[in-house]
Amino acid sequence: xxxxxxxxxxxxxxxxYKVPPRRSGNEINGRGRRDFFQxxxxxxxxxxxxxRHELDWAxxxxxxxxxxxxxxxxxxxxxxxxxxxAAGPVTGxxxxxxDPKAMADRVKAKARxxxxxxxxxxxxRDEDQLAGITFPYKYAICLGHAMDREEALYVPYKRGAxxxxxxxxxxxxxxxxxxxxxxxxxxxxxAYGIGEDLMQIPQAIRAGLGQLGKHGSVISMxxxxxxxxxxxxxxxxxxxxxxxxxxVEDLCATCRRCTTDCPPAAISDxxxxxxxxxxWYVDFDKCIPYFTHTHGCGVxxxxxxxxxxxxxxxxxxKLLAKRTDARxxxxx
Length: 332
Ligand code: SF4
Ligand code: SF4
Description:
alpha+beta, globular, 332 residues, binds iron/sulfur cluster
């Protein structure tokens, strides 16, 4: 049974496009395409690359921004102000790094000291980026910031949405602090948070923060999907983390919680081809109008069983044990 504090509103909308977007968001995202190509920005554009006003979905994005409640707007404003500190000068000569593993441990310890809940290192790849945008770095230090679960359970209403924006704002502040720390070691580093033109999910999965769930977001053992991503890009030599297998695939194969609870029925029970990869995919054209109407929705993240505090480790142990039992039984 859903633990949400209030029942989500039905998926009927008080607004409509006079002129609908020229292209479906699913088409732009490459749903159904088996060939790889870099993604295009559809929503939440910062103006880098293609530019806000050229986006097919720019009017919906603008509507989202203009109709946000004041508390959310205020958190967003503070986050934008904070982003001024995302980059800065390196201080001193680069320290020599003979042992990238020891350096990664040092940076992770600093991240935890700052208060960051999840941290892992992935190789930065241009292919994860929007077409036309590249960043001149080798590594992505991927960061996860847990939301206050009690507040987040108020999605898809103003109170839950404000918690999302508060978490992004705090996440931005923490990422900025970590980037500043890396620069103090004499290596360039830049923080990236909400609204930036980075595809953070593939990076975070490669960095071992969690696995992709049927609802299209990362599921971690520690916080389920009740967290938000930021990252720090840098050239500081760091040992890479490996992707994890905590059993997310096993549960998503039979669980239908998010598919059933998503008000506009945007989540599919089968994987789909998207830009050359077969994976879980959320129907953009169904999700985003509801997301806009409810200031960010997030129902699928909070109803997911992994998001129940303290449940992830046990769930993972059970799922992996069941998998082993099935293998043993098949071999007998
Ligand atoms: S965020 Fe999108 S996919 Fe998730 S429940 Fe809301 S409408 Fe559905
Ligand atoms: S709610 Fe169930 S199906 Fe959806 S992502 Fe979570 S575990 Fe997977």
